[in-house]
Amino acid sequence: MRTHVRRPVLVLLAAVAIVLALLAADAVRRVVEGRSEQATDAPFYVPPTPLAEAAPGTIIRSEPIASAPEGSLAWRVLYHSRDLAGDDVAVSGVVVVPDRPAPEGGRTLVSWAHPTTGAAPRCAPSLALDPFELVEGLHELLAAGYAIAATDYPGLGVDGASSYLLGVPESNSVLDIARAARALPDGGVGDRLLLWGHSQGGQAALFAAERAGSYAPELTLEGVAVAAPAANLNALMSDDIVNLSGTTIASFAVPAYEAAYADRYPKSEIDGILTPAGAAATPRMAALCLLTETREIHAIADPLVGGYVTADPATTEPWQTLLRENSAGGQPIDVPVFVGQGLADRLVVPATTEGYVRLLCAQGADVVLHTFPGITHALAADASLPELFLWLAEVEAGRRPSTAC
């Protein structure tokens, strides 16, 4: 009798052990292949010189990624996009799809916009040992049959001017990698598009949603989802410039804005808001990557907290104008919008996100807001996933989810 009771338990334990062994083996495979790819990545990110102009989304080159998650196919891509001035730039990223036949009409694509990793080329997510690590919800999306495209943004991966917190070039790259994904012969990607972004990526995804109809009309945008979005840059900067996070964010933004707006403002007007100590430290901080060199950034930024700028950028020109120009909400969004926000977030504070949602409501958007008690900024996207997948099912079914307005 005891043997009869134990047998199902033993079978279950054996099955669990097999699954764990397979997962461990796949993890080892991905690390080994990821290290091998890292050793040979560098030439891939160097575009042809001169770069022959081509339509946005045109693939310059692509290569398979051997360390793709089990059950998927993936490619590293280099593709054409446009900067703030409309000039052709090369941008890098990754595309990953389920390793099974695509449905009729192609797979729906989720274009992922990543949170801040830094502003230097080597901070690109696609250069990491695991180039898919930052794509929150990746495995669930693949299991549901979605294709995922993840841009690095201009200036990350490929050497060039940073696009940090610049809504137009970031959003261009988010939309153009969707075009590139459709052009991959074995990707099976259709024209249906969803946008998903966290923090800095929330700003990029929202700008992409505002501009998709005019910039990429051949794509059928179905919805946009964001977690703790950097939607209102004036509020973000005003809230955070007095702390460590704000000092770090500003140090990444200053060089990007200097380069992007050189035709409108001399360098002295952009960086004139910095204290002498802030001006001296900015190039050193901007050269570091947030996730892998956090300690080094903090060592520079900590002594500058409260002494990095001479005034609040959100109320000081030309920063006040430039931050407003790069804040979401300049154009209405005519597809469903999902917003997730942690209530313990001290970077993108809940009141700022609630203010952005009120703006969406005033513009007539179909928007849902989910708040999560105890959730910090870093965990906002992960906390959003259960509600996000329910929302995606509604959107994919052609229904308009109930609105928070």
From TrEMBL:
Coiled-coil stretches: none
InterPro entries: AB_hydrolase_fold, Lipase_secreted
One GO MF term: hydrolase activity
Highest taxon listed in the record's lineage: Bacteria
Keywords of this entry: Hydrolase
Keyword Ubl conjugation: no
Any Pfam family the entry gives: LIP
Stored SUPFAM superfamilies: alpha/beta-Hydrolases (SSF53474)
Matching PANTHER family: LIPASE 5 (PTHR34853:SF1), PTHR34853
Protein name: Alpha/beta fold hydrolase
Organism listed in the record: Oerskovia merdavium
